[in-house]
Amino acid sequence: MENSSDGPLRVPGMGDIPLDKGLPITDRFAHGFCEWEQVPTVTQREFTMVAVMNDLTDKPDWQTGIFRQERVDHWRGDIFAARPLMSDRAWEWCVSELRDKAGYYSTHGFIHVLDTGSRVCKSDALVSPKLLAEIRGACQSLLPTQAEGQSCTNGVVSLIDPSLYPLVWGRSLIRDDGGHSTVTQAPAHEDKRTGIGNVQERMDTALRGAYPEPWHYAFEEEDRSEYSAYFWSYRHQWLPAEIEFSEAEGTAMRFTSYINGLDQDNKTLDRPLAELVSACIAPWNDCLIEGRAGWDEDWDYLPESPALGWAPPGNVRPQRGRTPCRIITYGPQWDNEAPEWIALFDQHRRKRVAKYMALKAEIEMIKSQKPPRDADAGSKKKHKLRLAVAEWALAHNKDQEVVGLEQLPEPTAEQWTMAKEYLERPEPGTDAPVVLPESWERSAGILLGRKTRRLIRLKHPEPGTAFSYEEWKNGTHGGKAIVDMVTDRPIRPDKPPASTPHEPYTISLEDKFRSQGLQVIVRADSITLDAGREKVAEFVGSSWSLAGQPNEHVVAIALLAYDVDNVTDVRVSFRQQTDIRENTYNYGQGGLHQEAATFSVFKMPAHTWFKASLEKALCDIFGFDEAEIAGHTPTFPMEMQELGSVALAKGRLIAFPNTMEHRIGPFSLQDESKKVGHVRWITLMLVDPHYRICSTRNVPSQQGDFSREEAAGYKRDMEKEHALADFARYREIGKFFFA
Q: What are the residue boundaries of the DUF4246 domain, all occurrences included (predicted)?
């Protein structure tokens, strides 16, 4: 693809390149449009760990305080009081990692936070006070002009808005040779979104609150080939600016085409924004995610074993993010599991086995009473009927669950002593031994079961169990899991053993793309709170979103809060799609298990008894809602996990890949007596440099060409398209549950 002045314009939507042209996944960076998902699913304890490290790195002088034991001990006390899932082993890991992060910060000026697969890069040092003041001063001139009269979306006023003057196929003028000579009208494109009127109507109905999963209702009549067309816009595209590396080495940059949404006569922002892009290169290098082969492989259905369902394309599930998981598990562990000898006291099983064995004995007795050959027909018929009735009773009796089991031996004197000592153990939360009633032996089995239910506890997986911090840091952990993925599923014999490895890699935008430069989409936004105006007295938060549509091929984002005054903490939250396949995680017996047809609780070892449901255990470990996962609500959960949030403090730069959704959280006035407060920030969106898309190099400024009403109409149209794209994406992500 090419959009320079050296030849014909070869970009998506021009010439023989389709508008929705996509490069192979291995030849580009990853995006979040139903392509990238976190593997493996992240545990709640790991989310706690990264949240703690993110919070601590917001403290003044954290990078020196982490080496002072008295300060570390003080932090520890506060964190353990506030974070139930923080443990001694998790804390030791966090301290070790924070000390390494301090070294990285001193060298690079930023750190990785919320780094569970995807990562966010956070810096309070990359943007100097001088650059911050320049950006603030240059943006100040936009407030009285461009903010005036503009539409306000959810309280956000866009000072630089890429949706106001986009590329409009069939309307915009374009230099079709990529340079500065011939100008023609951009070609129109066929809209592949079928039934858009009906979809829009159903979406509007769903958004009025009538449906719990509005995206399913909106696309209930469309199959995948139809609703996936809604990912794209066939009418609009944001226009990035061209920016080049201005020196033979390093990351110094300069814009070579205008910034869309800015008056072409206003050049005061060009240099400071180019400096800001330069500051983003290293964080983007650290957070961009490369596409990998195998992400789009389909699972294979096994027709010879339909009860086993679908087999994965291989036994290896590589981790996909830049940071390997600190804790990997595919199932729960428990403290205080039932001892195996407890089965000897199960009187219920004894009765069931005895009844079953009696039925079998009756059948054998009937068989032994078979009439002789010369018996009359009536006797033979009567015997045959007796045998058939007995065999039917055996085959249809619930005691089929004990088929193949032998009667248990009676407990020995030693085992009775063990049972007594077990029942006398203190109850949870106390140290006092339990005093047993005199007749406890009569109901020993029931008492032992109740005791175990009170003692047994889900054991949240701990870091440092399957591999050490040093192994994790050095990349020698091998992706070992605490509890291995399910193996009583169709494992392919021609594939290696099941594992979850991680492959580290480095990215250097300045080396790989120095000659061609980059394309960046710029926007600037402002939120002003006013205690005297009801609708703007507080900000309620934005909705979850990815940046742009696939048309723009945005792969990384950077946010800079350049002006913050009299508001509470402004935080950016993140969530990502995950892959929690039910035939990979240990959640209990079901159709995916090879022994499901003959499953019986009596055949399970005693240590598996008396536990809460494995579905609930997995929900506790990974942070899902049990009622949703079990199908007890009108909705099932999407395969999404929230990573946490990062404070967007004044002067702070945060960068992250466009593989995960983000949103601005709610905030309000810090001091209501001052009446007003505001936050203003710059958003930079990096176009995947493996592509070249139509940019402001190719489209002359349209601010004099579009009327205010026409530009506002394109903005409204793009907002609708983005909403439809989100609905289509959620429809594709779908929902999951454990059967």
A: 11-76, 89-709
Rounded Cα distance, 201 and 206, in Å: 9
What pLDDT does residue 9 have? 85
Neighbours of 693 (CB within 10 A): 23
CA distance 192 to 234: 8
Question: Amino acid identity, residue 126?
Answer: L
- Give the pLDDT of residue 5: 66
Q: What is the CATH number of domain 25-40+118-192+232-290+505-580+639-706?
A: 2.60.120
Q: Which of 617, 585, 622, 616 is nearest to 45 (CA)?
A: 622
Cβ-contact 301, 310 below 8 angstroms? yes
Cβ atoms 206, 214 nearer than 8 A: yes
Claim: this prediction has a pTM higher than 0.70: yes
Count how many Cα atoms sit within 13 Å of the Cα of residue 476 in the half-sphere of its side chain: 5
- Which residue positions in the chain have pLDDT lower than 70? 5, 144-154, 178-181, 210, 296-315, 397-401, 487-498, 534-535, 582-583, 588-604, 612, 630-636, 734, 736-739
CA 222 – CA 41 distance, rounded (Å):
30
In Å, how far are 215, 227, 476, 636, 726 from 210, measured between CA atoms? 12, 21, 51, 17, 18
**For residues 371-407, b (16+ Cβ closer than 10 Å) or e, as one string?**
eeeeeeeeeeeebeeebeebeeebeeeebebbeebee
pLDDT at 593: 39
Q: For residues 482 and 333, is the Cβ–Cβ distance under 8 A? A: yes
Q: Which amino acid is at 495?
A: K
Closest to 196 in 3D by CA, of 222, 214, 215: 222
Nearest-CA neighbor of 58 among 122, 131, 132, 104?
Answer: 122
Write the pLDDT tens digit of every residue in 382-426.
999 999 998 888 777 665 667 777 788 899 999 999 999 999 999
Q: Strand 173-175 to strand 518-530: parallel, antiparallel, or no bridges (unpaired)?
A: unpaired
DSSP result, 489-538: S---TTSPPPB---------HHHHTTTT-EEEEEEEEEEEEETTSGGGSE
Radius of gyration of the chain (CA): 32
Structural domain boundaries in the chain: 25-40+118-192+232-290+505-580+639-706, 340-459
Type and span of the H or E element at 640: strand 640-647
| Residue whose structure tokens are 């209702």 | 217
Distance in angstroms (rounded) separating the CA atoms of residues 233 and 191: 8
The CA-atom distances, in angstroms, between 497 and each of 314, 484, 493 are: 9, 11, 9
The pLDDT of residue 396 is 74
At 122 the three-state DSSP class reads strand
